[in-house]
Fold each of these.
Amino acid sequence: MKYKNIIFRSVFTLALTALLGACQDDLEEVNNNPNEAIVAQPEYLLANAIKSNADIILGSDASMETTTLYVQHWAKIQYTDPDKYTASVTNIQNVWTNFYSLGLTDFDKVIKLGEESGNVNYQAVGLILKSWSFQMLTDLYGDIPYSQAVKIDQYLTPKYDAQKDVYLGLLNDLKKAGDLINTSGSPISGDLVYNGNLTKWKKFANSLRLRIALRIADKDPATAKSVVAELAANPSLLIAGNDEIAQLIYLSSPNQNPVSRDRETRDDYRVSKSVVDKLLELKDPRLPIFANKTVDATPNNYVGVTNGLLADSAAKLGFTKTSKLGDYFTAPTSPAVFLSYSEVLFNLAEAAQRGFISDDAAALYKNAVTASLQQFKVSSGDITAYLAQPIVAYNAANYKKSIGEQKWIALFSQGLEAYTEWRRLDYPQLKPAYAGVLNGKFPLRLTYPTGEQALNSASYKAAVASQGEDKLTTKLWFDAQ
């Protein structure tokens, strides 16, 4: 009898276990959303990451409240603390967090999905955009987690790589990505930049390599020359026209340009006096594109705001007597430019002047200025008249001034890239914020976010010991001369 009871209990237990397991399976099936993808799709990740990165480079944290003010493209007429270099802890943290947790994480997943599916083109495009993200991060902060980054299963507290090593690594990554692209291979979807045109992606990869080669030209000229010479040997592998600009063209609300969205509720930015005065001096036809005329009549119709004014001084200038940002940049569909044709030409002009290639630097400079003017739809007659001015002519004896000033204009409202190139070329020669808090100095980087100090303390401390004090005024490797 006892034996039978044991058998009965065993059978009952097995039956109950099976029943519960079946119920669990049924419940799981009932709770599955038939319309939800179980496995991440590369096209959705790619589109989302492109959009998130575009929002970062035009948004408040990395642009409006930091780099676009530091490089004096914009100025503040209200809430002027950021324009005086009082950096917001939140802004600095958001730039870091959003690049790492949004763009880089998604681009890395796109690469892995491409590897798993055997689609080398997803791998390549993911690696190009991942490299672009790292380039912007190191441009802003200096030494950053790179080789161990986005590998949370392996490195919870990734080390910081020296900026030089990051740039050299990116040159190799972009070379690999360009070589991976198979223009006759599997197509890609979710491409908000080139709509699946893989030839243009290869050009973007090579143009990024050219950018980084010039970034290190003062510190590692041998490597820079080698990369530039390789690329210049076949210029067709670079962005070769304004129709090949790497950019995201926004849509109407709710997917509009972040500047457009910001302007719906705020009116605290104006075009910097530095920009307005320079364009008036040069009789530059881009002035009415970059800035709006003042609402009230003023002698020149355009009035810029001095960067870093005290709040009461800025307010006294008057909202109707100062120039707002031009409609081109506040339109819902205004593009987020990742890398332009004019920038490629400016980089080639500089490479020629440095002796890296044998091309005519003056001719490339003239073509670069022309490309920028055409990008902003300036008429051919106005272009001819502008280039004929002696003040615009190329000066080989001071090429950094010629290229630096015109590049600063061409990169208007591309805060991150303009800020980096201004630090590298040291032109135009701007004056620090009027009431700046850095003792008459400019900010030369972003400080590391407080989250890193708390959660990645050992790596953070090692980076600071190597790079220098964690201050806005600490020069980065590419900028230290």
Amino acid sequence: MDQLDLQQYNVRTDLALEAREIASETNGHSKFEGISEEREELDGITVTHMHVENEQGAKSIGKMVGRYVTIEVPELRDHDSELQNKVANCFAQHFSSFLERLSIDKAASVLIVGLGNWHVTPDALGPLVVENVLVTRHLFELMPESVAPGYRSVSAVAPGVLGVTGIESSEVVQGIVERSKPDLIIAIDALASRALERVNTTIQIADIGIHPGSGIGNKRRGLTKEILGVPVIAIGIPTVVYASTIVSNAFQMMRNHMEQHNGNTDQLFGVMNQMPEEETLQLVREVLHPLGHDLLVTPKEVDQFIEDIANVLANGLNAALHEAIDQNNVSAYTH
């Protein structure tokens, strides 16, 4: 059985797609028992459907059993409003399939949780989405007669981060769930990628829940059905890459380039030429953080990127959750 422990290699990625890529590179093949994968491309949008079917598949790539949908749109960095609307529509359609698979009724109530820190731009994705989604629970509670057909009860909260509030996000959410009793939780968080080209251009949807702080290596109490007693759909977008990962990848690309043109790179790279990728990454990490710290890297235009992608998610969620909103004109409903 193929097994890959990502912790062994210190590979920091929250994307199931990248975890499978790492497993493929390590094992020398792309097919794994217990994992099915389909890919489709349309108008510059690549959608990958991955189903980790059992524990064997989970151990192969180091991810939990569940379904993952990854939407990749490299051109999102161009601030093209028409493309953003297409992505929001695509996201709404695929998110709706998760609702159907979980048998979430059109009248079921939803709690949207925006994880992250308002004051740190790459980590502000969740709160920004919460600011832009259409919330209706108060209308259903206070004046239900005024709610038009085609809308459902939606509430939203940005619980902050442990370092600011002193309270775990899961504890805040658990208290809200016990009082408001939603039928579904949607958790949104910033992630980490191993590839700079996927930063702020990739959306991952998963039915496995989420762990706050996972994007920067934290392992804390998560938001899952097992903990909260309610189905949890996780939405994540990579907003950072570790500097050690960038340097390691650059070294591998340079070595591959020299091999194509020279053939023998031992004289140029010496002992590093014989080191496996995971050992190279570990060496780079040790060099980059002599004080015990690694660097998180994000594009300099992160302010605009985060605002754009948060609007894409908010528009898509509005369309997927409220039947009255036309998925072909999702941008009209951001407030």
